[in-house]
Design goal:
Elements lengths: L1 H20 L4 E8 L21 E5 L5 E4 L30 E4 L16 E9 L1 E9 L4 E8 L3 E9 L6 E11 L6 E7 L7 E12 L1 H24 L6
Helix pairs in contact: 1-2
Amino acid sequence: MIYKLRGCLYLFFLFLLLSLSIPVNVQAITIKITFDEYSFNEGDPLTDQYAALGVIFSGTNTSPIIAQEENGEAYGYFYGSYPDRTDDVVLSDYVSGGNMLTDGLGNHSTYPFLIGDDIKATFTIPVTQVSFYLLDIDAKETYTARVYNNVTGLIAEQSFSSGDPGTGDGIATLFSFSTTVDNPIDYLIIDVPDWSGYAIDDFSFTSPIPEPATIFLLGVGLLGVAGLVRKKRFFLGLDNT
C-alpha cells in the first residue's frame, strides 16, 4: 500500500504541474462605443448604460453627459443654451454618428465649461488596449489621459496641447494605449482643463479572454487532480464512501 500511495502522490504532483504549465492562450474581443447605441438626448447623463459591454463612465464631481453634433459640423459650445456652431469647420471623418461625450460640470446656462470635470472610464473586465478620439483641442488647451492598474498604479499617460500635430478646432485627436495581459488596464482618467469645450467619440477597448480549448484543458487537469486526491484519501482510510 505504501508503494501505491507513493505512486499516487507522484501522479498527483505530475497532473498538478501539467495543469499549471499549460499555456493560457487568449482571444481578443474589441468593443467600440460611438455613443449612438441608445436614443440619447443632448445633456443626458452617462453612467452605467454601457456596463453590459464592459465599461462604466463617471466624473469627479458629476456624471458626464451626451453632446450632439449639428449638421455634421463642429461645435462652438458642446452643450447648453448656446447654439451649436454651424460654420465651415467640419468634423473629422474619424468621429462617428451624432452623439459624443463631454463632462457635465459648469454653469452651462450662463457661461459654459467654467470648470472642467475629469472623466473616468472603469472597465468591468481589465483590458489591454483602449483608445478614443477627443475633438477640439485648441485655444491653449491641454488634455491628458492616464491609464491605471488597480495593483501597480499608473501604467502610462498621454497629453496633447493645442498646436500639436493632429490637434485643432474641429479636429479629432487620437489617444491610444496598449499594455500586456500581465499588467492590464483597470480604469482610465481623462484630465479635463477648465474653460474648455470638447467631446469624446469612438471609445474602443480590447479585453483578453482565455480560449475555450485552454479552459477545457485546464478543467481536465483539475479533474484529474481531484480524482487523485480522492484516491489518496481512500488509501489513507480517510474516505468512508
